[in-house]
Amino acid sequence: MPLEKTLRRLELSYNGLESDQKELFLDVACLLKGETKDYAIRVLESCGFNAQIGLSVLEQKSLINISNDGRLGFHDHIEEMGRNIVRRLHLNEPRRHSRLWIKEEIEDILVNESGTKATRSIKLMLTDVDPGIIMKGLRKMKELKFLYVDNGYGKWEVDEVSPYLPDALRHLRWNRYPFHSLPKTFRANKLVNLEMGKSNISQL
After folding, report:
1. What pTM value is reported for the model?
2. Kind plus residue range of the DSSP H or E element containing 56
3. pLDDT tens digits, residue range 50-95?
4. Is 124 exposed, middle or buried (0-12, 13-18, 19+ CB in 10 A)?
């Protein structure tokens, strides 16, 4: 069966979900594939979802599967369906996507400071972009709730004056975060989950 027709048929299961379950599925499809179920629940609940029930519904509808070691997975076509749903609203404008996971697109948006309030989630892996540029590029993403950055293995000379993070953040995971503290301007009133593995943080 041609892929386009396959994706249309698979989308019938997605269309039968409640609105919050649809959002949960899109987060898993774009951001959480391969993570453990326990970690995914922690992330999704930090973003306001009833994750235990939501993941059970997705599993019952065969939209996700849980491996023997407890990790979230998909059939490749189901993953592609979820990502297509996110992309097709603004096909040629990644900066207006609700979720960003493609490294080159994210780096282009951050470097050119072309972000918007539309972005709710970012997963940027093994980037070589300077952390100061990443921080500066987040300034227009006022509604960003989920941020996962892996700085790669570079050594950075950082400016402790310039860091910025959106106050809307609920989940912040930044591996090898180079600064010694969170930004002084960051009001973390909504922050639920904080993971800063291998970072230089010495105080919150």
Report:
1. 0.91
2. helix 51-60
3. 999 999 999 999 899 999 999 999 988 899 899 999 998 887 799 9
4. buried
Q: Strand order in 146-150's β-sheet?
A: 99-100, 121-124, 146-150, 171-175, 193-195
3-state SS string over 83-106?
Answer: HHHHHHCCCCCHHHCCEECCHHHH
Q: Which residues contact 59 (CB under 8 A, 6 or more apart)?
A: 65, 66
DSSP assignment string, 13-37: HHHTS-HHHHHHHHHIIIIITTSBH
Considering the four listed CATH numbers 3.40.50.1370, 1.10.10.10, 3.40.50.10700, 3.90.78.10, the one that applies to the domain covering 3-83 is: 1.10.10.10
**pLDDT 10s digits, 142-193:** 999 999 999 887 777 666 656 799 999 999 999 999 888 899 899 999 999 9
Q: Which amino acid is at 43?
A: V
